[in-house]
Design goal:
- This protein is mainly alpha-helical.
- It folds into two domains: about 200 residues, no CATH class; about 70 residues, no CATH class.
- The longest helix is centred in the first third of the chain and has 24 residues.
- The radius of gyration is 26 Å and the shape is elongated.
Length: about 280
Amino acid sequence: MAGMQEAVIGEVESDKRPSGGRRCRSLVGTALKTFLEVVERTADEDGSVSMDQVRRIANAFMAAEGPLSTFYEKTESTCDAIFEMASIERKRTDYLGRLITHPFGHLLDQAGSGIERKHLPQFFAAVRMILGDEMHSELKAKIRLIAETHRGEGGLIEWESFHTDPRAFLILERVLVTIARSFRRFDPRKDWFLIMMDSSPSAVSVASNAFVPKRAEDKAQRQFSERQMVQLFEALFAPVHPTTYDDDRRTGFVAQYGSEPQAVFGPFFVELKAMAGRVAA
């Protein structure tokens, strides 16, 4: 499982990526607009242009050096990079991982937050243990189907629409309800979570049944602290803070879980606030 967890680290990246098709179309559009401007300047008074003139302009345009040549080179390198990114993107299938980490994804790139991508394998392992294998598999299957409905141009998932899909939110909500309920006895669960986040696998997977021991110098020194836990959980649970629920959402929540959002999440936020106070003291 360690190999699988490490493989999904790269999946938690910025979701605001340009679609290869849209980006390259805009680059072609820029070149076409420039070409049309040149054609218009050579047109007769009545606006007509002979096909011979158009062909001569096109040939000159395609053979041009200087700024246009630089533009072509930039276009080629940009499109190559985008299509390479698209190829990698199509191989990413940990939709549940992306969904869960989205609320705190900004912390992964925030200097000084202490929340780093190297923490994600242990975080995913902890979440899976809290959910249990059956629920974890069920939610992964459901979110995969939802993600497929957001597959757009070039076969890529439109992540912005994915994360705003109400169906995806309900899955995230179910995950957070399960986590919050597992923290009813806050201190023992907190200690367990910190141990999980601080543990470092002693081997890495190189095949389904083959592992290579890590060298001592390669073992991660995570030192995941209470301060980092507060930051992570405050961001992770922000979408389900009781104050975010309107009447319709609250009614749906009660129908699903048999309790008010305040009853499920309130005690967790109280403990988290107390923990934040201790860390800041």
